[in-house]
Every structure is written in structure tokens, then in C-alpha cells.
């Protein structure tokens, strides 16, 4: 993260093994980068999408992301995204979905919230913040 170091390791411009990248992304996230909110009657801990981007920039420089589809099903907006990481072995990608009520009456809007969820879920498939899913059960 530009304003705060994630780790002592510096960003590398040399291709790295996907195994090394996943190992780095799977490290515990510093508490100062985590947020909390109430959802479904309980408090959950999460990593904001913009902080997830900073972790990806640091540990997987050159990563890219695209929206693969946008659908509307039963009043929900559903986005499917693909997160691609360049590695020594080639480009590796993971896809994930995010959804939000189309008639959203809370923070943000349905498309930005669904996209944020999908990006964080795709990043979790590379290990980023994956441990948070267990904590929030």
C-alpha cells in the first residue's frame, strides 16, 4: 500500500510463481486494514475493495480484472468477474460473482456493491482475506 507498508517485501517486476503469489496473498491481513459492519444481525469483519486492490498491486503487480457478465435475476443484479494474475507459469485467473438487490436502500448502489463483492470473492480464490470467511461464520 503506498501510504502504509503491507510487508517488508518490496514489489517485484520479475515474474513470480503463482504458488509464491498465493502464499503472499494468503497471509493474515493487518488489523489496521480491516473494517467491521453489521450484517444479518451480526458484526462481520471485511477488507474494503480498494484495500484489496492495494494488496493485489503489492503482491501481484500487473494483475487485471474484467466484468464478464451482468444479469438481473429476481430483483437482484448479479455480476460475474474475472481476476487474472500474471505468473511465472503464465496467466492464472479466477472468476466469482457478486449480487445486490436492484432496489437497494442502503450505502452505495447495486452495481458498485455487486462489483465490490465479486472482486473480493475472486481475490479470495487467490487467498486474499480467505481467513475472514471462517471468522464471519
Question: What's this entry about, in short?
Answer:
The protein is of the alpha+beta class. It has helices spanning 18-25, 49-59, 110-124, 130-135, and strands at 34-39, 42-47, 64-73, 76-87, 90-101.
Q: How many helical elements? A: 4
**What is the radius of gyration?**
15 Å
The fraction of residues in strands falls at 25-35%
CATH superfamily: DNA repair protein Rad52/59/22
Query: What is the approximate shape?
Result: globular
- What's the CATH C level? Alpha Beta
Structural class: alpha+beta
Could you tell me the mean pLDDT? 88
The H/E string reads HEEHEEEHH
Please give the largest β-sheet: 3 strands, antiparallel
Domain count: 1
Tally the beta strands. Answer: 5
Low-confidence parts: none
- CATH third-tier fold name: Enolase-like, domain 1
The CATH architecture would be 2-Layer Sandwich
Distance between the termini: 28 Å
Largest sheet, spatial ordering of strands: 3-4-5
Helix content: 25-40%
Amino acid at each position: 500500500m503506498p501510504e502504509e507498508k503491507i510487508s517488508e517485501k518490496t514489489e517485484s517486476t520479475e515474474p513470480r510463481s503463482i504458488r509464491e503469489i498465493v502464499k503472499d496473498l494468503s497471509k493474515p491481513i493487518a488489523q489496521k486494514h480491516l473494517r467491521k459492519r453489521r450484517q444479518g444481525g451480526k458484526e462481520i469483519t471485511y477488507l474494503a475493495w480498494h484495500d484489496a486492490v492495494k494488496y493485489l498491486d503489492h503482491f501481484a503487480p500487473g494483475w487485471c480484472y474484467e466484468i464478464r457478465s451482468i444479469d438481473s435475476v429476481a430483483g437482484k443484479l448479479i455480476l460475474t468477474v474475472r481476476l487474472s494474475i500474471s505468473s511465472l507459469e503464465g496467466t492464472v485467473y479466477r472468476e466469482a460473482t457478486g449480487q445486490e438487490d436492484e432496489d437497494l436502500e442502503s450505502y452505495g448502489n447495486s452495481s458498485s456493491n455487486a462489483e465490490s463483492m465479486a472482486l473480493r470473492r475472486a481475490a479470495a480464490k487467490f487467498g486474499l482475506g480467505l481467513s475472514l470467511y471462517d471468522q464471519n461464520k
